Structures are given as structure tokens and as C-alpha cells.
Amino acid sequence: MSALLQISGLTKRFGGLVAVNGVSFEIAAGEVVGLLGPNGSGKTTVLNMISGSLKPTAGNIRLRGDAIGGLSPHRIARKGIARTFQLVRILPSLSVVENVVAALAFRTEALWGNEAYEAAATLLERVGLAGRSAEQAEQLTYIDQKRVELARALAARPQLLLLDEWLAGLNPTELRVGIDLIAELRDTGTTILLVEHVMEAVRALCGRCVVMNAGIKISDGETQAVLKEPEVVRAYLGAAHA
């Protein structure tokens, strides 16, 4: 498989704090890769640099060979990267379908009018919100707001989808539904970089994992093998468990 995303020597400093320190890894087209690590390890900072929310202090980010590090978020989005956030970001004053139509209007090949509403309805059906287009987004449950955000990300037809703890805060039933939904995206060829703490989801979805601790990469490999490595166990559970 050819590399879709290439990250080399990626570094982010905030004053004297080095949040991400020389991280390198690649993602092939069609892969679902878990980006793991304890809180404060730099995972979301990596996603923020990939998506353009933060500019790297050093290092390179390439999408299909094109340098994207330091570009503005809208330019990176147009090149084919979409994301969700740790805290759901919807447009609360709009209806469910209007949230998705807004995304369709700003993608590279914009859709308008009836065509946009039809495409939005198809995306909502894909994430499990069929028939709920007219509801107000702010009145949805947490899992359903997450579905809206995912539909909006998929509206961009991304080459790479970044999911930042998309499964966090779900009850066991919702979690199973969420895992199945991401698995469906994987099975249709969507390339995903997944920041997640729910190990059930990581094991079910990710063929490979990159693990960070204190801003550095400590492991990169097949999921089951990585999760058994002493340094990874130590990072999550402490030395007594390694």
C-alpha cells in the first residue's frame, strides 16, 4: 500500500513546553490507525497540526506527497482531510440536515439547493439518522450530535478522516453502535486516524497503532503486539504493571 499521509520529525513547542517531539509515522490508503497514549501525551496536538489548527514548530506533514504542514485549516480541508473533535462541534441553531448542507456548500465540489439536501439526507442515513433531518441539532442526544458531526465530516469526501475520541462518553449500547459505524467506514475504504482511549474499539477497528507518551512516539506496529509491549503498558498503567 502507498503512503497517504507521511509525518516526519513533527514537533510542536509552546514556549518551553515540547508537546510533540520529533514524531514520525505513515498511514497507507485504506488503513485505520489508532493514535494512542495517556492524557497529555500529545495526540490531539498531532491531529491539530495535521488538520491545520496548529502550525508545526518543526517537521513535515505530507498528504500524497504534497506538503501541508502549516497550511490554514480550510486549505487542508480542501486537500482532503476532515475531522471530528473531542468536544462535539455542531451548529446548534440549525436543523440536522442544515448542519450537513453547510458542509456540502464549502467542499471543493460544492452542492447547493435540492441536490445538497438530497446528498445530506444520504449522509444522515449512512450515520444512522435517517428521517431526522428536520430536528434541531441542539436537541439531539450526545451520540446523535456525534453522528451529525461525522456526517458533516464525510460530506467533504475526505481522503483522510481524523476522529478525536469520537467514541468517548458513550454508554455500552451506543459504543457498540459507534464501533459498527466506524467499521462500516473502514470496510468501504475510508482511511482513518483514530485517537481513542476505549480499548474495545481500538482492538476492533485498528489494524495498527502508534503510541505516544510525553510527546514522543514509543511504539508503532500491529495492534495486538503493540498493546502488549512493556513500555506501552507502563505508559498507561505504571511500572508495576509492565
Q: Brief description of this entry?
A:
The protein has helices at about 45-50, 75-80, 95-105, 115-125, 140-155, 170-185, 200-205, 225, 230-235; strands spanning about 5-15, 15-30, 30-35, 60-65, 65, 80-85, 160-165, 190-195, 210-215, 215-220. It is of the alpha/beta class and about 240 residues long. It has two domains: about 5-80 and about 160-240, P-loop containing nucleotide triphosphate hydrolases (Rossmann fold, 3-Layer(aba) Sandwich); about 90-155.
Tell me the helix content: 25-40%
User: Low-confidence spans: pLDDT under 50, at least 5 residues?
Assistant: none
| CATH class (first level) name of the largest domain | Alpha Beta
Order of strands across the widest beta sheet?
6-7-8-3-9-10
What is the string of SSEs from the N terminus onward?
EEEHEEHEHHHEHEHEEHH
CATH superfamily of the largest domain: P-loop containing nucleotide triphosphate hydrolases
Rg from alpha-carbon coordinates: 18 Å
CATH topology of the largest domain: Rossmann fold
Number of strands: 10
Mean pLDDT level = 92
CATH architecture of the largest domain: 3-Layer(aba) Sandwich
The biggest beta sheet is recorded as: 6 strands, mixed
Structural class: alpha/beta
> Helical segment tally?
9
**Portion in strands:** 25-35%
- Terminal CA distance reads 33 Å
Gross morphology is: globular
Number of domains: 2
Characteristics:
alpha/beta; six-stranded mixed beta sheet; single chain; 242 residues; 2 domains; Rossmann fold
